[in-house]
Amino acid sequence: MKSFESLGLSKGLVESVLQIGFETPTPIQEKAIPVLLNGNRDFVGLAQTGTGKTAAFGLPLLDLVDDARRDTQALVLAPTRELGLQIANDLENFSEKFKAFNIVAVYGGSSISEQIRKVKKGAQIIVATPGRLIDLIDRKAINLSTIQYVVLDEADEMLNMGFKEDLDKILSFTPDTKNTWLFSATMPREVKSIMKNYMSDPFELTVGEQNTGNVNIEHNYVMVQERDKYPALKRILDDNPDIFGLIFCRTRIDTQRIAEMLMKDSYNADALHGDLTQQQRDRVMMKFRSRTLQILVATDVAARGIDVEDITHVIHMNIPDEMEFYTHRSGRTARAGKKGISIAMITRRELGKVKQIEKTLKSPFKRMMVPTGANVCQKQLLALMHKVREVKVNEEEIAEFLPAVYEELKDLTKPELIKRFASIEFNRFLDYYRNAPDLNQDDRGRSSSDGEGERYITGSRFFINLGKMDGMEKGDMLALIDETSGVTKQHIGRIELKGAYSFFEVEKEKVNDIVNGFQGIEYKGRQVRVEVTERKDGGGREGGSRDYKRGKPSTGGYAKKSNNKYADQKRKRY
Ligand code: AMP
């Protein structure tokens, strides 16, 4: 393994890099830096994100650009504002103690006049997104005629995002004598055409096999019905209490919806998509980067270029049609040599797509089973116990409160104490996951969540504040619905009886009958509450969460089963 010193970089730069904590060069750095340092040849690097390519082009660039001159000598183009800022930030960190550069990032969604002011002060290196750079060119606020080096980072992404014309225009403003360094994770036709049109005899470097994904990513899929995707997602999240994850959805609406459902279910989640203002996006990204936010739900476009370290899981709510999308999504995890897990949620019909991606990636997908309720309970319980073991005890301040605590618990043995303590938190999960169906689809596309003899009705799902603790059984629920609203059995789908509450599904046309029928109804002296719960395709079957507000078992006296369950019902409407 080579050292940074041996690559030909100047001493000051090597020192800076070592100070940052990079000890040895990554493979792409080892191979690219000596070539780029010559400064006399075009270059094409085929490498995934996360391989260290920013330093691979950034370090030679910082050595080649002259900080004694004020004119713009290098231009780095990146597909997104996030990636642009990341690159500018890295370049500043690498060069801080080495040369006095003025590095300016220009990107959309932020004051253009401020950026023009910075550029006019004299920027040796400009990092830009193509759209904003075109604005600056059109306003004649930037002079590209002195450019010696152009870096096209994530070229495939820029072309995917429709920047082809912008790139053509930008490159036409740069001198023919410049060197162009292009980096791309994939090599579609459009990238080849850029190479053909704008580069001469480039040095080509492939790190890892072309189109082969990052080997540190473990590719998995779970096979569930479309409508079970959200409950399956929650199981996966509950089964990984320490997850730091990115969830991808196809559309902005889905992204917002999934994020909102998760937030409502008390997960630490938020959304990132194009309908948000730049300020909102910045805020979300800041929370995610600082790990104040645990789960980010994003669209493909919004998440491009996100480089956040230590993302443990990338979850795809659907499998993308384009291979490139899959590569970029999953490439957000397993960065800087770390391991990462990618989980695609698919229906049986999408199995073909998985096989296709598998072939191109040359990396097998593993079928992962959606955890069962028991798996989740076990995981959560152990996570809680781990927390107990790790908790920092503030000996001094707790001391005065302990005698009373010891007194209160003095007759309990250690196993008793552990059992009770664990139950405080555990009961919520146990309640929620008791009788939870198996969400995995079998080879014929069915799952046990179909329920025996039950139909799935495309309609609405209701929450009702009566359940097993009120002595309810399915037949009783059917009878109650019929008597109060006139909606009969054949219009009713799945009934899920829980402790103090239940869910039932009815055909869409009957929704109003239910809402009207249940108005003012009391059951055993208690006001009956019936509400439509959110549930479209992929909606939350299980409705509950780590902190399910409604689902707490009631300690009231409903548990007694009476022979005539409706005897003490007061029918206000009847
Ligand atoms: P990149 O592919 O440039 O986005 O880099 C991915 C991650 O690897 C970034 O977080 C870098 O800070 C880190 N990195 C790059 N080069 C090295 C190196 N030689 N040693 C350790 N970490 C590195």
TrEMBL record:
- Membership in a protein family: Belongs to the DEAD box helicase family.
Looking at the record, the residues that make up the DEAD-box RNA helicase Q domain are 2-30
**Any one GO cellular component localisation term in the record:** cytosol
> Which positions fall inside the Helicase ATP-binding domain?
34-205
What is the originating organism of this protein?
Chryseolinea serpens
* Keyword terms of this UniProt record: ATP-binding, Helicase, Hydrolase, Nucleotide-binding
| Region of interest: Disordered | 532-574
Q: Where is the composition biased (Basic and acidic residues)?
A: 532-550
Motif Q motif: where in chain:
2-30
- This chain belongs to the protein called ATP-dependent RNA helicase DeaD
